[in-house]
Structures are given as C-alpha cells and as structure tokens.
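In line with agreed milestones, the collection of sequences with tokenised folds has grown. One record among many is set out beneath this paragraph:
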Amino acid sequence: MQKINSKLLYPLAGLATLASCGGGEKAELAKPLNIVYIMTDDHTRQMMSSYDNRHIETPNLDRIAEGGVLFENAFVCNSISGPSRAALLTGKHSHKNGKMDNHTKFDGDQQTVQQLLKGAGYQTAMIGKWHLDSEPTNFDFWEILPGQGDYYNPVFITPEGNKNYEGYVTDIITDMSIDWMENERDKEEPFCLFIHHKVAHRNWMSDTTHLSLYEDKVFELPGNFYDDYEGRIAAAEQEMSIASDHDMDIVNDLKMMREGVETRLSGGYIHGTYARMNEAQKAAWDKHYNPIIEQFYAANLKGNELAEWKYQRYMRDYAKTIKSLDENVGRVLDYLEQNDMLENTIIIYTSDQGFYMGEHGWFDKRFMYEESMSTPLVMHLPSHLKKRGNISVLAQNIDFAPTMLDIAGADIPEDIQGVSLLPLLKDEVDPKDWRKSLYYHFYEFPSEHMVKRHYGVRTERYKLIHFYNDIDSWELFDLQEDIEEMHNLYGKPGYEEITKELKAELKNLQEKYDDPIREVYPL
C-alpha cells in the first residue's frame, strides 16, 4: 500500500505580487488567481462554528471565513450528492446536466468548468470523492474514490488503475492535495484544485486518534426532534428517522456490533467498512466501542430513551469526523500561508448539501427544508478583493462554475444557468439588485429514505414546495415566523395572495431554467 508523507510543507517562493495602477485605480494581480475548492460530503451549517457554535468548534474552517466572507444564505438546487456535484461542474440545474439522481451516469463529454478553465490556461486537479458514475474528464490530474469510498485504507481510482492507500481517508486526500500543489503542478501557471472529502457521509467513522472526543458532551436536542408532521404528508412518509431501527441502523450507523445481532445493514459494516481496518486500527476501534456496546445492550433502552441515545451517538460520531476534516483543512491553509500563496489564491469551502442533525427527528438530506437545502459557503479572499464579513443574498451551487470562470478571467457561456459571485466579492453589487428567489428540484424516488419527488421556490422570506409523482401535496412556509418549517400555511385563510405570487415566481423560474416538469404539472 502507498503511504504519502502527511507533513509536506516545503518552502516555496512567493507567487503573487500586487501591482498598483496608480491614481487611485484598483490594484491588479500580476498573475491570475489560483482556486482551491474544498468540498465535503453532508457537512451541514449546524456543525460549523462560524455558522452555529452550539455543538462543536471548527477553528480552521472559521479561518477561511475570517480571511474573507461567509454566505449566510447559500443553497443547493438538488440536495443529494451526485446531482449536487454535477451542478458544481456545469453551472446548470439537474434537468440540464442530466444528473438528476445518484443512479444516472454523468456525461463527462458535456461542457464543464474544468474544461473551460483549462481553455483559459489553468491547470486542473480533482482529488477525493467524485461520485458521478463516470471517470473525470478534462483534469490534468485526478485520483478519485470509487462510489462513496471508504474511511479506512481506501482504494482510489486513477488513470493508471486502482491504487490502495493505508490510513484514514481525510488525511490521505489532504496528503495527495498538498503533494500535487508541491510536486506535480507547474508553479509558473495558475491552477484550480478540487479537494473533495468523503466526510461527513454516513456511517460517520472517525479517525482512531479522535475516538474519545465528545464522549462526555451532551448535545442539545432539537426542539422539533419529536415532530409529528402534522399537515405535511411527505414528511410523515420518509425513511430517515433516527428513532427507527430500519432507518438508522444500530450496527452500521452506530457501531453496536455484537455476535448474534443482525440488522438490515450489519453485513455491510461487519464485512465491509469494519473489515477494511488493519489490526492496529481494529484494536483501537474495539477498545473504544466494546464498553459502549456492552452498556448499550445491558440497558435495553426503549422508546424515547432509545431515540435520544441514538441521537447522542450519531452526533458524537459525526462530530469526530468533522474534527478530522477541520484539522486537515488547517493543513491546507498552513501550506498556502507558509508558501506565500494566500495573496494569489481564492479558497472556497462548501458541502454538497446540508444535513439533518436531529431536526424533525431525522438524519440525511433530500428535502427542500432548510437544513438540507442550505449549505455552508465561506471564502478566503486576497486583499485586493475588498469584501469582508457576511453576505446575506441568495447564492446557489449552480453559481460556483461561473464564479470560478469569472475569477480566471474566462468567458462565461450563455447556457450556464448560475451567476458569478465575483461582483459580490469585489463589493460591486447592491444587494437590492441581486436575485430574489431560488429554484429547487429533487427527483430520487422511490429510493433510499423514500423522500417524495418535489420542486419549489425559495425567496428571502417564503418557501413553496410541490410534492408530486405518487402524491399531490403543497407546502408553504413563512421562514421569518417559522424557521423550523413546522406549520404548513398552504390553503390557510389569509395566504391566498402570497401563494399566488409564489406560484407565479415558481412558473417564471421553471420557464427561465427550461425545466420540462412545467409541461407535466402546469402552474
């Protein structure tokens, strides 16, 4: 197995200098900006302290925001992994890029941001989770995890074939990323590096060095943990409940492996993720989990006690994976800082979507509700980009591709549906002139977690959702009065006019983005 040096921090001559134009004109970079795009899987804003400090601290992720901006209202257009990644690469909604669910293959021959960046003279690299059921195209360098990948001793797919690595996946992806910046690229040319981490995807297996963290912490139970889904038919029929042993598996998800205990997903854990560990890793893992396993089965918990115990274990395991992520993001930031690259590099950090941390009693994503439609989005900016602090306008993951192209000085093709965020970073846009609504469409049903197909519109205050296919149900929420989205106002007296306005806006967005669903369900 290959092992990469995890302490790659070499001296490097400064790459960026600022040349003043004089006469009060804007300073311009002597070289194009590098782009480091870091994306995690299922990392939600509730578990990033620059957004929400109730649960954990993420000092290195917060460093990115402190050196630039934090988007308060960043969202995805389809809250599931593969489609979100396709939206990133194309700047288009799912129905336009063809990747509508996790089961369809992404067409890598279509126009992508890395292809356009290469045309603008950029070196491009993709390292980590790809999850598009196809091989990467138009990258100078790539090594990707197959499917979801493994937390321990993972296999990577490369142009030369599969490679086996020993260690923890977050460390390995970071090692490879730093190694590419230091040893593989042409240091005289700009680059765009995509660092795609596996964390914090199910089943939340932490590094053995972090197993003891958060074990004494009691995480705050969400106020709507025991949601009864009144007035929300689709919410009542999902399969992503923490309390349900069918949905949150006691062995696979919570590691309560015991002889004679078989669950729906136990085989995948025992013979898959756990079996991948080497003897030293298993020894550390068993030393931590065996006492917890004994205590759990001895307690024989039922009802709410069991549900809340599962919630605490879930939160602890999830938080541990984020700890490893945060440390490794810090390593990338340290490398860039120690090699004088921060003044010539934009660092973008985000996730492929949000995640439920017990809200509505759930884990996972998929719904258009806030916790999964939203995503963290922070950027480190070189000093010539003047904007600092929080940005409150509506941003979406279809905006990432045009933003990168704008940063590179490349033309943005007319068929890209997102808009560049660069004018916001230059503080050149009045928020009053920015978009006022976002479009969302989720397709993957029937499938894991059984979330109904739905589309909808989100404005700065309201959200209107239509669940369709095997159901015909509408939901309307006033996010100013009901941020937890517990009270469906659709059809209630007094909301006729806002419903009419939102349906008109939904129709406008479907026409603007050319979604064929409008022909099947005309508004």
